[in-house]
Design goal:
195 residues, alpha+beta, Cytidine Deaminase, domain 2, seven-stranded mixed sheet, two-stranded parallel ribbon, 3 helices, globular
């Protein structure tokens, strides 16, 4: 019968086994470092407290949400993106019966921006969601896919994108996607020797 090496394994059920067990090795235990990740954001109880132009951008996101195509979830999301030129682009979520063929508002507006204004840097994105009662009480944050797309757009345009998340009870202002997506996967994560 072969020898089996067991580490950190309960061997009580093997007492009557015919297996030849090698002695347990000594494990080297190292001290792990604990680190914290902070999420930094500002909070406004009233949208009127927002900086110049940001309330108008949030209003554009709410208006965009009205046009969303969400017959399955009833959850309509709108996004408005202000570019360096001052141009504002809007996008909505578009659902599809062949899930997950739909698209989120954030990815929609960033794709539109890259397609139509590739050299006009995005500066601020406002996001708002509507349900059957109107604007959601709490701000809705981007999903994981959208966070990754915003991170890639920050990298592509070499600029931080301020994120405004609007809800009835409060508005959150986040200076960069790094607060919503720490430890990002990026082009630096991909081996450089790939063709």
């Amino acid at each position: 019968m072969p020898n089996i090496l067991l580490n950190n394994f309960d061997t009580t059920h093997l007492r009557h086994s015919k297996l030849n067990l090698l002695p347990l090795t000594t494990l080297k235990i190292t001290a792990l470092k604990t680190k914290n990740i902070s999420i930094i954001y500002k909070e406004a109880d009233d949208p009127e407290e927002l900086e110049n132009g940001d309330k108008e951008l949030l209003d554009e996101a709410i208006a965009a949400a009205v046009n969303a195509y969400a017959p399955y979830s009833g959850f309509k999301v709108g996004a408005a993106l202000r570019l360096e030129s001052g141009k504002v682009i809007k996008g909505t979520n578009v659902e599809n019966a062949a899930f997950p063929s739909g698209i989120c508002a954030e990815r929609n507006v960033i794709s539109t921006s890259v397609s139509n204004h590739p050299h006009d840097k995005p500066l601020v994105i406002a996001i708002a969601a509507l349900n059957d009662k109107g604007l959601t009480e709490e701000p809705v944050t981007p999903c994981g896919n959208c966070r990754q797309v915003i991170a890639e757009e920050e990298l592509r345009s070499n600029t931080k994108i301020k994120i405004i998340l609007g809800g009835r009870n409060k508005t959150l202002i986040i200076e960069s996607i790094s607060s919503l997506l720490p430890l990002q996967f990026s082009k630096n994560s991909i081996p450089s020797n790939l063709p």
